[in-house]
Amino acid sequence: MKITEENFILKLKQKDELALEYVIDNYGWVIKSIVRKSMYNLESYQEECINDILLGVWNNIDRFDKTKCSFKNWLAAIAKYKSIDYKRKYLKDLENENIDELNMKVDDNSHKDIIESEISKETEEMLSHLKEKDRELFLRLYVKEEDIETISNDTGINKDVIYNRVSRGKRKIRDLFKSKER
User: Which of 53, 60, 96, 176 has the fewest CB atoms within 10 Å, measured from its CB?
Assistant: First the structure.
């Protein structure tokens, strides 16, 4: 059976490799443009990130719901978040390098500062659309990597309320990304 726009999602769910090739041929430009824009100064990580995005599509296609968004927007969200993850991975790699190597690579510190600044700006821009309390929850959960239990104890907010706020915040951010891509 030929892979088409009408059946490629079903074929992906059935783990048909030709459907993944279809995604690459017809939607690869979405992935590449987001990765290149987001990781323009990390060329050596771009190919690995693109492969990771495709693996994410392959492994998570069952989570795609065409009633909530288009495949293109879903793919773009995966690409954006994976790109951010790769920037963080690069920063951790830089931090874990040997001190002697860092002394030899003076320009890597400026590179690190630029990437940290980009991550910070992207995060700020995404979170700026949320209410102050929700923004604080996101920062504590995803930037400071605190667990829900700690946040609940510190703020006195019930864990279920935190989950609801985070869920609504994610939905709002997703909707903003969808509207920006149109």
Answer: 96
